[in-house]
Amino acid sequence: MKAKFSPLQLLDFKLLESHVEFIVPKDDEFDVKELFHSYSVDIDFGLKEDIGTKEIKLFTFIAINAEEENPLPGYKIVVEGGGTFRIQNPEALEENLKNNLTQFSTLNMMINNLRNIIYQITNLGPMGGYLLPPIDITQLLRDKAGEGDKN
């Protein structure tokens, strides 16, 4: 099947921060998959549209098991990335599609890029690669919108 390209283009992606710390488990026996599943995951992001260049800049921050006090054993991970996007012919698109591409798709692409990096930087670690579970992007966007309402 021939792929049809999206009007959304990822122009640039940069890894701005990556930090992995290994916390040695005290117990000898544990289920790594269960441990990974119990990790807390915090995601924050900031989106900025530049009207002049028609570019969308998105910074995305992911912290996994990164509580200051009492993190679980295994990996403590922090990554941050920045992406630059552009929508081809935005004036030709319906507003709903344009909003979906600007918010949902850009964030989804950034999280997926960072997911790959997280897996790569942990893959050679003592517990093998940590694969970030699927994220509900719609809920992240709702939470972010609610955060703006509070300020």
* CATH architecture tag: Roll
Q: What does the largest sheet look like?
A: 4 strands, antiparallel
Average pLDDT confidence is: 93
Give unreliable regions as ranges: none
**Spatial sequence of strands, sheet with the most strands:** 1-4-3-2
Proportion of strand residues: 25-35%
How many helices does DSSP assign? 3
Q: What's the name of the CATH homologous superfamily?
A: SecB-like
Q: Please provide the count of β strands.
A: 4
Q: Return Rg in Å.
A: 18 Å
Provide the CATH topology: Bacterial Protein-export protein SecB
What is the 3D shape?
elongated
CATH class: Alpha Beta
* Residues in helix, %: 25-40%
InterPro entries: SecB-like_sf
Organism: Mongoliitalea lutea
Protein name: Preprotein translocase subunit SecB
